[in-house]
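User: Hi! I have a protein structure encoded as tokens and I'd like to know what sequence might fold into it. I'm fairly new to this, so please keep things simple.
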């Protein structure tokens, strides 16, 4: 991939993965907030009546959480592809190159668990 033989190439790839990790976390947090806001609105109504707009906030929020999980997984796959293209001299000696990938996949797993929780608790 690079003829620089410079570890900065590796660190740039890792920063990109971590930026995608922050993006996926933001998508999940925003989706959760949208989903919970619909629940809050339903609780404020007297008497509590299900309405299409509340159902829409549930599905939009859940979809954003799922999108965040998918983004985290795809970012990790892309990062692993870039790592395979790097030369050993571009990865610092004794550096755990997979730590950021592990953290990003953990975020994705939490997102999947949140989607399952939202779907099961909506019934």
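Assistant: Happy to help. Inverse folding works backwards from shape to sequence: for each of the 123 positions I chose a residue that suits the local structure. Here it is:
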């Amino acid at each position: 991939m690079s003829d620089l033989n410079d570890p900065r190439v590796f660190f740039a790839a890792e920063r990109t993965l971590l930026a995608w990790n922050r993006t996926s976390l933001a998508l999940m947090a925003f989706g959760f907030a949208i989903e919970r806001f619909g629940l809050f609105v339903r609780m404020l109504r007297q008497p509590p009546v299900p309405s299409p707009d509340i159902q829409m906030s549930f599905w939009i929020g859940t979809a954003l959480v799922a999108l965040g999980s998918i983004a985290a997984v795809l970012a990790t796959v892309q990062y692993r592809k870039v790592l395979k293209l790097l030369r050993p001299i571009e990865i610092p000696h004794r550096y755990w190159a997979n730590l950021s990938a592990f953290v990003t996949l953990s975020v994705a797993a939490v997102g999947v668990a949140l989607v399952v929780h939202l779907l099961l608790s909506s019934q």
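A useful reference point when you look it over: Residues 19-88+96-121 form one domain. Feel free to ask if any position seems puzzling.
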